[in-house]
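Researcher: Hi, I'm a grad student and pretty new to this. My advisor asked me to get structures for two proteins we've been looking at. I'm not sure of the right format, so I'll just paste the first sequence and hope you can take it from there.
Model: That works fine. Here's the first sequence with its structure tokens right after it:
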Amino acid sequence: MSGRFLSHDYIATIRARVAAGEEPVAEAHRALIAAANAALNQERLSIRDVGGSPHFRQDGVYVDGQDGVRDPGANMEASHLAHSLSRATTDLALAWRFTGETRYADKALDLIHFWCIDRGSYMFPDGRVDDPASPGGKYGGDVVLFHCTWDLFLACYLLLDYPGWGLQPRAAIKRWIGAMVDRQRPLMFWGGQAMYNNWEDARLLYLAQGALALDDLDLLARVFDRWGQTLPLKMTDEGELHRETMRTRSMSYTLFALHSTLRIAEIARQHGVDLYDLCVNGRTIRTAVDYAAGYLLDIDTWPHEMIHPADEDVRDSPRLGAFELAFGQWGDERYLQAMETWTQRPIAAGHATLLYG
């Protein structure tokens, strides 16, 4: 990989910390290798395993008209498959970067090619969710596609300079990702206004990691610019993400938004662009992190609606990795305390502790 994000030198620095036995980074590395070894046995996956269609189709997650209430009859198989693919290929690609063992890269590419470009199994690169999976089902929105495929883009980026990846399949994968990304370049709207809630955060992370895989620096710069434009819109002066706290699962959506937002800020940091400390109209993303962290340390004082208990909606949430990024950037012990109140380090999701801790 020739890009600046998770560069050779960056990975080498983490590798040295692992070799020195530094915890919890060393334990996080062991967890990565264990996950990658398990992924070596991952069967090939195809979107066509969901009813035979080459299109990504999924029902809406929630009962119509009941925000936050999951529909037990919703068909979510497409996102489950895509999540499994993204997780396995990212584990394998990272394991190759850390160990140099080609078996990890070869397995990742086998899974990627089968899902993306092999003629009998590939997913059409629509880059959006046009239809529900069930006849007459509720439309789920493009956000369900974003968060189950953005790490597939990351895996492809991590493998770009693998010598065993041939020119033609590598070019075909880039065309596939390009088609997926192009659909989401225009702004999303709701009620005639450009969106700036967690859907937009998710779209921007999807575009950012697609841009990494495509080596599209122009798109990456546009993502960073849009990040700055939405910053003062999405939060109050106190740091409340008001488009998330108005929802029935307010803390869950706050964590989802912060996780996407901080991952973009980290990509920007490694490209020499400071979004972490960007101040627009007196507002910074750190204020939002502080707001959430304070209440995670005293959840009973959280003043917003939560239709599910915190132990159900927050405990061991993969989005708590946002505070690993925050701690790595600002070193505030409260961020560690907020994480460790609700989960254990190392955080496996996204290998947040290994990569950013």
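Researcher: Oh nice, that was easy. Here's the second one.
Model: And its structure:
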Amino acid sequence: MAERKKKRRGKKKPTGKERMDRARKEISASINPAQVMIPGATSRALARVVADPIRVQMLMTSTLRKVSATEFAEEWDIPDHGAHYHFKVLRDHRFVRIIEKVRRRGATEIYYRAVKSCFISDANWAALNPMFKGPISHAIVEELWRVIAQAAEADTLDARDESIIWWEEIPLDEITFPKAMAMQRLLIERMVALGAETAKNQAEGKGGKRFPGVLALMGFEGAAEKKPRKRKRKSKPDGTDK
């Protein structure tokens, strides 16, 4: 009995620091933080975020789905307080935002999502690690569909006469596609500026009711249509077709 107790004492649980270091090694094995490019972020803020692989993983996880510090800590087996600290760093630098607060067992669990604008890439998209492109694009599209579904359910999707719902498949080539994307980038800049104009209007008591306006733009290469296979006719021995 005494020997069994000694063995139990000899098996130490990893400390919080050891668990954090182990998580960093696991994450770094699959993600190189130095290759993460986040357009729109200042170099100082970006350097602070990518300085720790755990924050990089948090950013990628919160891009794909909502996640709380407690959930992340459980998934990566790190101390809860460590996860809360790193999410606070991301939030302070405006890389994540709070989307939900849930009361559980007398405490409030806070859920985060990555701020989409941090991932919209212009010049830096080509330099972005390819392993991140697919998940980021999919996450943005999924989030957009969620917002559209909410508006449809709330009957606000086409409630205003000025609302526009439009899409078109237009033939483009290597010369006209970049021109089309440049036009959209200019429009995005102007639409973002309207947010600042709205804030000014509200501060001056103008503009009436404030509400969330959804302005979405997409431009991408569509999938090529599959050409129907032509059925080959079999010839008879006499040379005529069947």
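Researcher: Is there anything I should tell my advisor about the second?
Model: You could mention this: The longest strand covers residues 96-104.
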